[in-house]
């Protein structure tokens, strides 16, 4: 909790919560904090080709037991999503040392960059670059909302944009990855358990809808003469709600009218759809339904719409043998699914991967109300230490 308190002043979002985004000045502060905490523990710190930071207990090597998470947040994010996994990892190292444990395998704590995609719009950027799940050319085409190119942003953080991409050496080094994370729902509350293991992650992705109409005067333009892209965007928001049936989820959390003036009919509107479901077919069906509704609404208003997929990840089923092994190691903790995306979900397609969840009494996440009791954070850290000891013996 002291470590989370240390971070409480970093990247404060003046609207509430935190705004900690990848490859920014705030990111540099978070990296500096992590580096100092790791070095204080005698861990060897290095940054990989994609800007992810690694802290090694002993010599870096292949087949390591790796734990960690991310330090970035969504806009207005909570204090736990990401940082809890990093702080727990550092504290688990302390616990293991206190127990006199010496790992028989290399052990590392990793901080993945830009997990939330809060700046460049592409989720799990650091882990997807590392695994090759996103091509470097695609990443290098990304711009933040102010038009800053990813290449410049990574360079400012000491990362060579020419080196971005699948990192075979880093991948070979990961024998097993375990990410601890605050739960982002009420699953563990309902089960009455402080800690659980992850079973699966919903398929999920992000799509940008770009509506174009005619910018004009709010007072001088008769209603019948308008081509207002905001109308089509509004219909799309409503369509997302009705399309997400049978356990699917569809959200429009971000909408940008251009130029954005109270007395201006927008010339264009960008809108982002986040859609998730138990499998790819269902997720794509939701997006298809919303796209059809958007196309109809745009046509009715004399506007156009263009839809671009910004990122997508298929359903993740975590390695059942590892999941059961870890649950048993922890005395039979429950396994539960999640609708939230994680770097662990990206790594699961490439290496043996598991996740631990810590109970969140509010059930809220991606908002300042996100929480975990100190006692549950401690239980999670103990569980992580037990799991690391089990895997690294
Ligand atoms: C990340 O937390 C996501 O699920 O979007
Ligand atoms: Mn998150
Ligand atoms: Mn997270
Ligand atoms: Mn005027």
TrEMBL record:
<comment type="similarity">
    <text>Belongs to the peptidase M20 family.</text>
</comment>
<dbReference type="GO" id="GO:0050129">
    <property type="term" value="F:N-formylglutamate deformylase activity"/>
</dbReference>
<dbReference type="Pfam" id="PF01546">
    <property type="entry name" value="Peptidase_M20"/>
</dbReference>
<keyword id="KW-0378">Hydrolase</keyword>
<feature type="binding site">
    <location>
        <position position="366"/>
    </location>
    <ligand>
        <name>Zn(2+) 2</name>
    </ligand>
</feature>
<dbReference type="InterPro" id="IPR036264">
    <property type="entry name" value="Bact_exopeptidase_dim_dom"/>
</dbReference>
<protein>
    <submittedName>
        <fullName>N-formylglutamate deformylase</fullName>
        <ecNumber>3.5.1.68</ecNumber>
    </submittedName>
</protein>
<feature type="binding site">
    <location>
        <position position="81"/>
    </location>
    <ligand>
        <name>Zn(2+) 2</name>
    </ligand>
</feature>
<dbReference type="GO" id="GO:0016813">
    <property type="term" value="F:hydrolase activity, acting on carbon-nitrogen (but not peptide) bonds, in linear amidines"/>
</dbReference>
<feature type="binding site">
    <location>
        <position position="70"/>
    </location>
    <ligand>
        <name>Zn(2+) 1</name>
    </ligand>
</feature>
<dbReference type="InterPro" id="IPR010158">
    <property type="entry name" value="Amidase_Cbmase"/>
</dbReference>
<keyword id="KW-0479">Metal-binding</keyword>
<dbReference type="InterPro" id="IPR002933">
    <property type="entry name" value="Peptidase_M20"/>
</dbReference>
<feature type="binding site">
    <location>
        <position position="276"/>
    </location>
    <ligand>
        <name>allantoate</name>
    </ligand>
</feature>
<feature type="binding site">
    <location>
        <position position="206"/>
    </location>
    <ligand>
        <name>allantoate</name>
    </ligand>
</feature>
<keyword id="KW-0862">Zinc</keyword>
<dbReference type="GO" id="GO:0046872">
    <property type="term" value="F:metal ion binding"/>
</dbReference>
<feature type="binding site">
    <location>
        <position position="81"/>
    </location>
    <ligand>
        <name>Zn(2+) 1</name>
    </ligand>
</feature>
<feature type="binding site">
    <location>
        <position position="181"/>
    </location>
    <ligand>
        <name>Zn(2+) 1</name>
    </ligand>
</feature>
<feature type="binding site">
    <location>
        <position position="116"/>
    </location>
    <ligand>
        <name>Zn(2+) 2</name>
    </ligand>
</feature>
<feature type="binding site">
    <location>
        <position position="263"/>
    </location>
    <ligand>
        <name>allantoate</name>
    </ligand>
</feature>
